[in-house]
Amino acid sequence: MSLGDWIGQSENLVFLAVGVVMLAAGFWVVTSRNLVHAVLMLVVALAGSAALFLLLGAEFVAWTVVLVYIGAVVVLFLFGLMITRAPLRRDPLPLDHRRRWPAALVAVAVFATLAYATTAFFGWEQGEAVERSLTGDLGELLFRRFVIPFEAVSFVLLAALIGGIVLARKDPRE
């Protein structure tokens, strides 16, 4: 498939637009000096990943990303910032510039390795369509076979919430 054929398909243009926005948001997350701005850009990056799942036809996974990651984890992170009254300094601790380039080289090497391994395994040809699984089957499996681990995770999250409240409250002696 040539580049002209690839760009001629509207799905690829949407993928390219979402990918560029995700790349910019991810870069902003790791370089932002303001913690709240970094969290908001994380929301944009996670929304982009949900959009990519929608492009793949995995609607359930896309809305799970929206509910769990954007709706729960990011909101919990922002509430944790507000409850603990963490300082929102604009000037973070100075970064050691000697570690920046090795970290960038490791990131590029990991990306190149994953890209090579993916293309070597799957190739460049378009694959066959796979049969979709129904969301109802997934829900039945989750709530029949894995109900105990599911409830255990809910108790762990409840304990984490109570722990956050205990850490954030003021002692009467203060």
Describe this protein's structure.
By secondary structure, the chain is mostly helical. It has two domains: 87 residues, Up-down Bundle (Four Helix Bundle (Hemerythrin (Met), subunit A)), CATH 1.20.120.1200; 44 residues. Helices cover 75% and strands 0% of the residues. The model has no long low-confidence stretch (mean pLDDT 80).
CATH architecture of the largest domain: Up-down Bundle
What's the level 1 CATH class of the largest domain? Mainly Alpha
First-last Cα distance: 69 Å
Shape: extended
CA radius of gyration: 21 Å
Strand content: under 5%
From the structure above, extract its key features.
Four Helix Bundle (Hemerythrin (Met), subunit A), 0% strand, mainly alpha, single chain, 7 helices, 75% helix, 2 domains, extended, 174 residues
Give a topology summary.
Blueprint: H1 3-8, H2 10-31, H3 35-55, H4 59-84, H5 100-122, H6 135-144, H7 147-168
Task: Describe the structure concisely for a colleague.
The chain is an all-alpha fold and 174 residues long. Helices cover 75% and strands 0% of the residues.
